[in-house]
Design brief:
- This is Anti-sigma factor antagonist.
- This protein is an alpha/beta fold.
- It has one domain: 2-Layer Sandwich (Transcription Regulator spoIIAA).
- The protein contains 3 helices and 5 strands.
- α1 runs parallel beside α2.
- It is globular, with a radius of gyration of 13 Å.
Length: about 110
């Protein structure tokens, strides 16, 4: 799994959006590193954190747990987490688990 973080360095600008682009597989082997990276990103995120899923090729229950956990942490910090461009398999997974109702999508 690769994380490309396009968040600003230093102090966050609340008028801009923080975007994290993920690629590859989000599974038991990569979910702990992803969790650490996203928690770190929250510390300098703006009021909106977008996770771009367009290049994610696989996601298991551990990956979904990371997304839900980060969303809960973000809410406590006053940050909205949204997902962008999930591939069809990921959209089905989110729909099947009901997470599509709790994790907002942006165009």
């Amino acid at each position: 799994m690769t994380v490309i973080d396009t968040a600003p360095l230093g102090v966050a600008n609340p008028s801009s959006t923080t975007t994290v682009h993920l690629s590859g597989e989000i599974d038991i082997f990569s979910s702990a590193a992803l969790r650490r990276r996203l928690l770190n990103t929250l510390h300098y995120s703006t009021s909106l954190l977008i996770i771009d899923l367009s290049q994610v090729s696989f996601c298991d229950a551990g990956g979904l747990a990371v997304l839900v956990g980060i969303q809960h942490r973000a809410r406590r910090m006053g940050i909205t987490l949204a997902l962008r461009a999930p591939r069809p398999f990921m959209s089905r997974l989110l729909r099947t688990t009901g997470l599509d109702r709790g994790l907002p999508m942006v165009a």
